[in-house]
């Protein structure tokens, strides 16, 4: 019976070997490959296409609106709507959708047809005719039902009205679907009837605007201009590059795992003999099916204007990474979410399943979304570029120190931005940045700051090989004298730091792979904006009656912030216990669970900053706190129920069947008088194994009962998301971990044909 029940697993494994690969071809023209640069943006209605479609005066009006100088008038909106409809329908589009980012961790869309009916009245009668139409008002906004999206109590179920509004800073694009379908996507924000933000994007745009204003305030002091002349910099924008890690597994095996299907991670599963300990997967040869999926994904993304750049194997088996070129933050977020959607669809076509969960497999590395963040001006200057002599680049030093000050004062808030039930399994493990938010600068910049603080020259960092590495040398001339010199960065990398300076940007490594980057980047933008305002005020105070601060004034402020931010700098191993003890001595928060992290959002010192900058209203913050607590509890309750079902309906019956087989065999052998070495029935291997199985089976039943008890305790506080989240963390997590430990041990004891689920050895190696 057990063997028959296990047929799907074995059949799937055999079918995977014989399955023919999916074949696609990159576009060709006259027999020659089309360059990727020619494909880029093919399905995007960007500024170049709008400029061609609109009269010059109308296009100029649109640019003013995009830059925030005026509202979009109806005439211009109608002209754009007409142009984009013609372009989209010529490419096969039949529908349009406002594409937005509700607080569900994913995107949402509702498709509307261009088709409409036009009725005319004449003396001869009423005539109804089908036409294709798309008005400016339809482009600008739509009205999805807001009652079923998370609102944190801001909207009641009977108050259903909400609005999606076109985000003109992000270009519209086309996506093709099955059966030659095609839809025009309109990137949008999502607000309530009262104007409250119900999404992730609205607050990101607010934070970017406030950060730009704060940075401009600083630059006005640092970039003197003649009286009456416009400022040298008119806009500062955040740039973002999101390195997306993910797992790819066989979809046929995936569908046989209820835990993966429902929760995104394996709730049980013993670690196979070979996992990542051989260290041979990282940057290794990309498997053919994976490379086919990657290349097809990249082809679609290039047409959508997503500048995908890098692909490679990651550390764990079947773990990979895709990274883009940096873009303006709000567009980078759109493109990251689009990347996740396209990757999922293409993987499906290749009979694979992409897993974005931060820790889908216990015992091997999890996945992150490394967010590379910086500030750039509308003149193309990177404000975090240290240049050749950072010690005299006061603009760089002030922006650097503002960022460090933001991490120092609002590190706990940044911790809240990366907190989730799934990322909780990854943070603090020996594979991911710890929950303590600190800043890594590297040896060179640390020396620069120390020398300024101590008013002394910089110690010698100008050795002959600091800028290049010579691959020759006395011992290696024969071997590598033909190799060129290579450039060398001023600082090494620290993969254990959650917030590391990496040349001309900060890498926020702690963001979860499944998360939208919007919320973490919103909090970072806000914290840096507040610190920039504070530093600007300090410069004005130092300057006194002077219109601009002198170099001495700047150094005074720089030296002060070097001293105050020193405690958040850490250059060592962020995984070590010694760092946890040192961080505690410094007073840096170590928030180890999600409910405590979520509370930081409404803590006075953080909420005052967020509300004061106008990034959140008080009700929006309270709403988000409510939603995060509620989501966390729901995630854990769902996992606990799925685990209980798997244990009771699959694992325990498999053990019962194996036990029955062993018992029957032992009885028959005893009846025949067959025993091991003449030691009697007790010496039979079957009896020995039965004696090992039985206590584990009894123990597993106890953990099932413990799960039931934990679920009941959580149920008693239902209705209060904060209490429910804390109860889930307190009772469900240890019960699930205890049950898993026993189930995994039983897996190693069962005969393979009795185990009902695809094993980790099968999921991670195909």
Automatic annotation (TrEMBL):
Residues 200-651 form the GS catalytic domain. It comes from the Eukaryota. GO terms for biological process: glutamine biosynthetic process. Residues 94-195 form the GS beta-grasp domain. One of its GO terms (molecular function) is glutamine synthetase activity. Coiled coil: none annotated. InterPro entries: Gln-synt_C (IPR040577), Gln_synt_N (IPR008147), Gln_synth/guanido_kin_cat_dom (IPR014746), Gln_synth_cat_dom (IPR008146), Gln_synth_gly_rich_site (IPR027303), GS_Type-3 (IPR052725), GSIII_N (IPR022147). PANTHER family: GLUTAMINE SYNTHETASE, TYPE-3 GLUTAMINE SYNTHETASE. Belongs to the glutamine synthetase family. This is Glutamine synthetase. It comes from Actinomortierella ambigua.
